Amino acid sequence: MRPWSCSRLIRPSWLARFCGLLLLSGAAVPAWAVPSFARQTGLACAACHTVFPELTPFGRVFKASGYTLDNLQQVQAVSSRRQEMLELAKTPALSIMAQVSYTTLKTRVPDTTNPAAPGLTQNGTAGFPQQLSLFYAGKIAPHFGAFAQLTYANDSGTIGIDNTDLRFADVAVLPHKQTLIYGISLNNNPTVQDLWNSTPAFGFPYAGSNANVSPLAGTEIDGALAQDVAGLSAYAFWNDSLYLEAGLYRSAKQGQTNVLTGQAGPLDGSASNVIEGGAPYWRAAYEYDWGANSLEVGLYGANFKLLPGSALGTATPLQGPDNRFNDVAEDFQYQYIGEDQIVSVEGTRIHEKMNLAASYAAGAVGNVTDDLTTDRIWATYYYRRQIGGTLGWFSTTGSSDAGLYPAPAADGPGVVTSANGSPDTRGLVGEVNYLPWLNVKLSLQYTHYTKFNGADTNYDGLGRNASDNDTMYLLLWFAY
Amino acid sequence: MSSIDRRTTRLIPLLAATAALALLAAAPGARAQQQPITVQARNTAIGVCGTCHGPDGNSRNPMFPRLAGQHAGYLVRQLKSFKDQTRGDPYAVAYMWGMAGGLSDPMIDALAQYYARQKTGPGRSHDPATIARGKDIFEHGIPAQGVPACAACHGPDALGSDMYPRLAGQHAEYIMKQLASFQSNMRDIAVMHGVALNLQQPEMQAVADYLESLP
Description:
CATH architecture of the largest domain in chain B: Orthogonal Bundle
Shape of chain A: globular
Radius of gyration of chain B: 23 Å
Largest interface: A-B, 55 and 44 residues
Distance between the termini of chain B: 66 Å
Oligomer: heterodimer
Helix content of chain B: 55-70%
Structural class of chain A: mainly beta
Number of strands of chain B: 0
Helix content of chain A: under 10%
Mean pLDDT of chain B: 89
Structural class of chain B: mainly alpha
Shape of chain B: elongated
Number of domains of chain B: 2
Mean pLDDT of chain A: 92
Largest sheet of chain B: none
């Protein structure tokens, strides 16, 4: 359901093909809780998670502290001046995670492989696996830990880097028994380092189909740059309540080579949507805990200046006009974590203002400035961490732009087009979950669209309705 | 490159320098070991244990027991029973086996001393009728059901001793969970198993509410 921002900068003629490919075959799905943390700390999942991947207050402190709390036997080295030179766990913090899924669409999509023989695609896609991941998640050295994920995904058929967060952190005890956790995060996805599950990287839906049809519009901070950037940020978490963070992101392309030298860099015009300079990221949040309840409210945002490069169809040197995206978001999270019952309610609203000078100059978009707002809110209930479910509402609205959200080409297939050039999409997503063990989850998820790419009926200009994209997703998800 | 771009680009080395400095500052790993054990214990209690139990042991979340003012001898025995995995109630298994697994004996002693020194908070008010019933059970037991007076071991004001824990001011929810664990023998203490077996649910709740109401 999460709208992938599949390059609103691409020329319309490319958009259907590129987006169709990306959206129908899916994009990287976020990452999760990992049993290697449990092995390292000796703590059961419930210490850090309500049900994975949602964090408890203790889980937030564990993450902020750099994933370094441990109770394992260590291999150690000490200098003659009694300085610790090495502290290495005898058991590596490794985990494996798998997702096996089955997806059906309410209405099949056209099969465009042979224009001479038009037909429909097969409905009912098995992902076996949809995703298989290897994690190093835990302490590397004192004050230094990692959550690093390597993922095989069935859409690409390859193994690639997934969400990664390297942290250095320490905790200072202040006067009046107050605490200050401070640290640095080096990560590859804006908000993957965040402590609350209301922000995009670890927000709901925690898992989704990669064999569905996704809407055209999405903001940049909402996963568009995941695993495509390297960010360094500094943060402070005071008294487990006030959190402040600031950092910069820079493009870190995977599988990209310089055309002249054949090396991984410098990046040239063959790369697409390259960050110009450093993109600032910022975050402020406040959490108040009482009894078994906690409430967080916060703000986060980023400002991306992207040089289109090859995104406009042909390789273009990384200079000249750029496209600018200023994202500002609000979020909140409420949790009640009881012995038998767990309730959480989370939500976020992301506003994005775009100045698309580069795309406009190339005739790829209809307006120089556009805007987009994404809202999501969801509520989760679990009984004894075994049976539960989530119901969520999502909406994306914004200015119409026939270049960003194009109508179908004369002989085009539709589906990933918009008849009226509007990005507006909204709907509901619900799922029920059963966990026979805390590290094994069975999910049945249904996504219903009341509006898709600008309309509820005939949204694509070729007769497809929003609800035709309704998706049923069955998932077996486990980690060990 | 615009002036704004140059500004943001200049921030990169600044941020990298901050990161490098922070790493350098932390590099001498022996730092923590050179501190006296009492300081280490205080920092651990506030920085690690405090996330659940509160920095001064007065936890706000009823899932986690209040440790402020608890007797050091009792705390040492509990921490050791977590460490050697002999205390088997659900939260002990899920949380404390791991948390206490790496604690040395001197650290256990120092942590226990830290909590024993902390000031307890005020009690929490409950229905007066329930408190009266709980007080009666606590002070006199229920002879007809074979329930002895709790006060016989835990003291007239539930302040306990090194042998028997202080119960005054403890979260009612935590006491209820412990009584259930004694009942099922997941927390295996023969005396308390017998007591809990003979208590009905409303009687347990009355005692728990009474104890939580005490300062």
